[in-house]
Each structure stands twice: as C-alpha cells, then as structure tokens.
Amino acid sequence: MGHDQRDTLKDEQYYTPFYHNTMVRDRFFHILRFLHFENNEAPPNRDDPEYDRLWKIRKIFNNLNSKFCELYYPSEHLAVDEVIVLFKGSVFWQYTPKKHKRFGIKIYKLCDSLGNTYDMAVYLGKQRKLATEEITSTHGIVLQLIQRVEGSGHKLYMDSYFSSPALYDDLLERKINVCGTICNERRGGDESGHAIKPHVIEDYNAHMGFVDKSDRMVNSYGIARRTWKGTKKLFSHLLDMTILNAYLLHKSCDGKMTHKKFREILVRDLILQSRISRSVAFLGGRPSSPGAQVSRLELIH
C-alpha cells in the first residue's frame, strides 16, 4: 500500500484488483483492528517507578534494535538526530515547532552514511526510567545510542540540540570523535560565556544529514494511516525502517535494484510464501470461505 497512496480503501474509483486477489478487504480491517503486541488485559502498574510508557510495543522495538546492530556494522561516519513520526493521539507525542512534522512521536536515531538506522530510542518524557538508568537529557540519549560503537574510532556528527562540551569530553574518552554546532548559551562554554565553535563546517555539512536521508527514504513508501493508534503508528514506522535497513544491507552487498523494486519483490515473495503455507494447511480438506474466517476472528475476540 505504500506504493499506491490513497485516502480510502472503500471507494470504487480506487479499486485495484491486486489487493482483492491477495486478501479480502474486511479481513484486512479485522486483522488491523486486532493487531496487538502485548496483553492489554494485564497492563503494568503506572505507579511503578520503572513503568515504561512504551510497554505495548517494547519487545518488538528492542528486538529490532538488537537485530539492526547484529546484522550490520556501520560506516566510519555517523550522525545522531531526531525524527518525528506524524501523530497527535499518543500519551508521549511531542510538539516541535521547527520541524515540518510538528506533532508526533519523537525518535532519536543513530545513522551511518548509507542512511542505515543502527540504533534508536523513543522519547517518552522526562519521567521515563529504565531498570538500569534514567535518561533525562540529550547527553544521556547520545551516550545510550553510541554504546555499541564505543572504542572503535567512529566520527559522530550532531547539531546544537545535542552538543555540549561535557558530552564531547565523554565521547572522546570512549574513542569517538565528534563534530557539531553549539549554542552560545550552552552550559560548559568558556569563561566569557561564549561556546567555542569548531572550524570544520564543510565536514559537518557533508555528514550531518544521514538521519534526514534515512527519514526521507523511510517515508517514500510509508504504510502509516491517520486513524491508527499510537502503537500501530509506531509499528508501521518500525516496519518501514526495517525494510529500508534490509534494502541498504542488500545494497551494501553490491545489490543493483532500487528501493521501490526491492519492496515490490519483497511484497510478492511474502504473498507467495503465504499461499504456499495455506496450500499445505488445506491439504487435509476444503478451505473455508473468507467470510467464515472473518466470523471466527470476531467470535474469538
């Protein structure tokens, strides 16, 4: 659906046989309705000091983060920045007036020169506390994102939102070289109150846009829809990001196809595998109608 952007699936004017031949529309809506990643009937205690606002999708988020690092090693030059997943209904949505997408879920990303997302973290508010540490500042966010590349001599680029002399000192101790802009009023400047700006502006401009590059590619064929809940909206973004990372991994191995072609082949392969699985399952008898399958789905839930 990311290749065929439309406002509705119900208008005959936008009818496309490919979708109907793959899955009945009502079944798709039912699957989307009942798509959950945790047991909502047993939520964690909100008064718990270690309460995680992302608990409904935390397992998938952490699993993807681990796989990104396990299957790919980033290039020498890295960039850390924030992106906004457009959404207004979540309990941890952010308003960022300087961004094109002003309302949404804020995600901090560490990307390399190809645009591959190597690590990420969702902003959950100042009260978020993990079992091991509390992340309340941009300083801590950067240290969290670079944990898996410490001691390898990477070069990291960031803007003034993250930069501070204290952070640069910490990163240097971890054998990570840093380049970025900095605000004059940022704490930790010289005695005159003016921060010292680096003179490698050309180098900064050449490498700072890695996260923006990744975000543009992710949104090129995005599957998200306005009516989805916060967890589903975030899941759709993670799914698009995972497909992009898979494509960039293919490209790094001298793959020649385009991003769009890669996604199209992926879709057809998934449909083919699904049909093979159903054929094997139906060897014991006649398959039931799609309407009966939807009715059973409603009964179960």
Please tell me about this protein's structure:
The chain is of the alpha/beta class. It has a single domain (34-256), classed as Nucleotidyltransferase, domain 5 (2-Layer Sandwich), CATH 3.30.420.10. The chain has 10 helices and 6 strands. Strands 1, 2, 3, 4, 5 and 6 form a 6-stranded mixed beta sheet that branches. Helix 3 (58-71) runs parallel beside helix 8 (230-252). The longest helix has 23 residues, at 230-252. It starts with 16 loop residues before the first helix and ends with a helix. Mean pLDDT is 79; it is low at 127-136.
What's the structural blueprint in terms of helices and strands?
Elements lengths: L16 H6 L2 H9 L24 H14 L5 E10 L7 E2 L7 E10 L4 E6 L15 H8 L9 E4 L6 H9 L3 E4 L20 H7 L2 H11 L9 H23 L6 H23 L8 H11 L1
Short summary of the structure?
By secondary structure, the protein is α/β, with parallel strands linked by helices.
CATH architectural type: 2-Layer Sandwich
Query: According to CATH, what is the class?
Result: Alpha Beta
Characterize the main sheet. 6 strands, mixed
- The low-pLDDT segments are 127-136
The number of strands is 6
Integer-rounded radius of gyration: 22 Å
Q: Write down the domain tally.
A: 1
The share of residues in helices is 40-55%
Structural class, from secondary structure content?
Answer: alpha/beta
Overall average pLDDT: 79
Query: How many DSSP H or I helices?
Result: 10
First CA to last CA: what distance? 26 Å
In CATH, what is the homologous superfamily? Ribonuclease H-like superfamily/Ribonuclease H
